[in-house]
Amino acid sequence: MLEKGRVHFHAGLDAAVRDALVVFSSPKTCAISGFLAGFLSTAVLLPILLFYHACYLLPRINFLHYYDGATDTRYIGDACNIQTLTDQTLFLLLLPIILGAAAALFGHLRRMTVCDAFHYKWRFPLSPHQTVAICAGYLFYLTVCLINRSFLLLSSAPLLAITSGPAVWGIWQTVHNWLLTYLSKPTWEGLIAETVPIWFRRRIGIAPDDILSIKASPDGLLEIHTRFTPEAAEQARLLGPMLPGISRVEIRDPEGAIIPPLTPQSRLSAALEAGRLVAELRRRRAGMFSEADYKARPIRIDDASVRRLRITAIVIAVIFATSLGWVALRGGYKRLTAEDLAWFFGRYGNQSSPRLRLPGIR
């Protein structure tokens, strides 16, 4: 029988399918799709950050500091100070290519991580491909500050700066999954054959060489030649029907003989539990990848490092939303009117100073 903690086996199935898709793809396909993910995401994020800095942060800071004499008067009155970036056009064009190269390394390391192809033990809490993506995200954000010749993106948007690394990692991995789906064109049989070892290894704790061969038939039969113990074979029979398109599982020993169930009672319990899980999965995973209308599903990664990242992102999002709500409650987003400006200049201004006249207002 299975332990109490192994009831919800479907928790990591999506992650296993995504990793199986990476294993199914060739190293060249993983690197090319990684490059495209980095190039496309940078080409989209770079203009957004430049626009945010030039058309929101800079005019806002100039307006607040104008009467203190701390702002360069060259920029006063500019709605969007984008013209200063024309001397860095070459670097702006090269930045997506540089980030694309880093994303290609991300795709290659991701495949090596899933295939466990490293010849040394990685002791850092994050996996190598996650580390590369997060470091690239922070360097990208810092590079945008250098392009703008200003660190307003750090001082005025610290939460955005903190989340830039994990955000780039999430974007790269999501786009990488989409591209692998279209570039690799996985077959149902091939994806099943790659999913079973990954998923069984994570759920049952088997060794990588315990599975000798896997064969999935169109009629729903999954036949596995293994070196499983009877207990592991019992768990595998329960896990098998959760795979889309699989209704029956046969676990065979290396000689081809079927490994029998432990007891009739355990076989009946496993069948009832499997039936319940299959009914649930058919409702939740209709048309996952067993049919021609396969669509990429949201990735779910079930490991400690990703849970820490997810908790950190949630905490930051809650703090950010709370701060925005506090500012809104105190009237921070109220639209300025002519009466407000008149009150401000009448109370804090000096009528004899020529700086009181706003540029563009006659």
Structure report:
- The chain has eleven helices and three strands.
- α1 packs across α3 (89-115), α1 (13-24) packs across α6 (158-184) and α8 runs parallel beside α9 (264-284).
- The model is unreliable at 1-9, 67-77 and 352-362 (pLDDT under 50).
- The chain is elongated and about 90 Å long.
- The protein is mostly helical.
- The protein has a three-stranded mixed β-sheet with strand order 1-2-3, with helices on one face.
- α8 (230-239) links the parallel β2 (221-226) and β3.
Percent strand: under 5%
SSE ordering? HHHHHHHEEHEHHH
Globular, elongated, flat, extended or rod-shaped: what is the shape? elongated
Biggest beta sheet summary: 3 strands, mixed
Radius of gyration: 28 Å
Overall pLDDT confidence: 75
Number of strands: 3
Number of helices: 11
Helix content: 55-70%
Instruction: Report the end-to-end length measured between terminal Cα atoms.
Output: 84 Å
Oligomer: single chain
Give the gist of this structure.
With 362 residues, the chain is mainly alpha-helical. The protein has 11 helices and 3 strands, in the order H-H-H-H-H-H-H-E-E-H-E-H-H-H. It has a 3-stranded mixed β-sheet, with helices on one face.
